[in-house]
Amino acid sequence: RRVSEDRVSVSIPSYGQPHSIVERAEVTRGQPIELVGDVTRVDENKVTVNLGVPVTVDADTLRLMTRYVPPKRKTPLVDKAT
Question: Domain containing 45: what range?
Answer without folding.
Answer: 7-27+35-61
